[in-house]
Design goal:
VC0802-like; globular; 131 residues; 7 strands
Length: 131
Amino acid sequence: MTKLDLVILKKKIAICQLSPKDSIPDLSKLGDFWSITKTDEEISIIIPENLIPDSNCKSEKGWRAIKIIGPLYFSLTGIIASLSTVLAKAGISIFAFSTYNTDYLLVKEKKLEQTKEVLKKYGHKIIELYQ
């Protein structure tokens, strides 16, 4: 199993859902950490909780982001699996997303301490980042 360096971001994160017909929110108001995915079924937005765009946005709050220190090369395999498998065995659900450089896992804040314990047990290095 690949041992990874992981950063836990301080901000509470929300996962929001809009209709695919809705407008994408003004990006200048989304802060410095967000991700938007649009499909024919929905628009999903990952954003700090305090910046949820509007009341039409269905949202799931209380997530914390764990960033895998990258960059991760496209030829690497099993990165998410090496984390998600051990967390699943511990009963911890995740929401994963990727950028060009790296991968992120979102875990519920109430499971964050347990998540850190599990990941450390499997040799991953945890760094707390307060941004």
